[in-house]
Amino acid sequence: MTDLPIRKVLQKPDVVGRMVRWAMELSEFDIQYELRGPIKGQVYVDFVVELSSAATHQEGAGFKWVFSVDGSSNQHGNGAGVILEGPYRLLIEQALRFTFKASNNQAEYEALIAGMLLAKEMGAKGLLAKSDSLLVTRQVTGEYQAKDLQMAAYLEYV
Questions:
Q1: Opening angle at CA 126, ends 124 and 132, nearest 5
Q2: What CATH number has the domain spanning 62-157?
């Protein structure tokens, strides 16, 4: 089933060159053109089923979820990216654009929090977080202290 314009090729005898040869080759098979119906609703259903079955399998099997985050800030704006990898090759990517001013470290913390919330929403139990921010990772592991009040608030939330 397709929604491509192949109907014209299969039913129109006045096409030229290579198209005529293809029409002749395909005519010996019993190929009929059928318009593909709407599939949007089915895609959503399949997606929900895939996610819910992966989440239920994950709990008993002891799978670890892994997420990688990266936040960035410059004079044009700031945002973050989150990639969450779950069991059975489940991969969720999320891009965030912040509407508030933030430093690069704040953007890194926002990305970390967004990743943790996404993993929690997916039902992750064991979680490994990866970040390229030395400050954020060392503060979270307790190697560095958060001296700035905003960084301390982010650290407490994490």
A1: 95
A2: 3.30.420.10
Residue 20's CB is within 10 A of a number of other CB atoms, namely 13
Q: What's phi and psi for 63, nearest 5 deg?
A: -70, 150
What is the pTM assigned to this prediction? 0.58
Placement of tokens 């129109």 in the chain: 12
**Length reported for the chain:** 158
Each domain of the chain, given as residue ranges in start order, spans 62-157
> Three-state DSSP class for 21?
helix
- Beta strand spans in the chain (E): 64-74, 77-85, 91-98, 126-131
Unique residue bearing structure tokens 């977080």: 129
Residue 76 sits at φ, ψ, to 5 deg, of -90, -10
- Residue type at position 108: E
pLDDT tens across 53-106, in order? 555 444 444 558 888 888 877 777 888 888 888 887 788 888 888 888 888 888
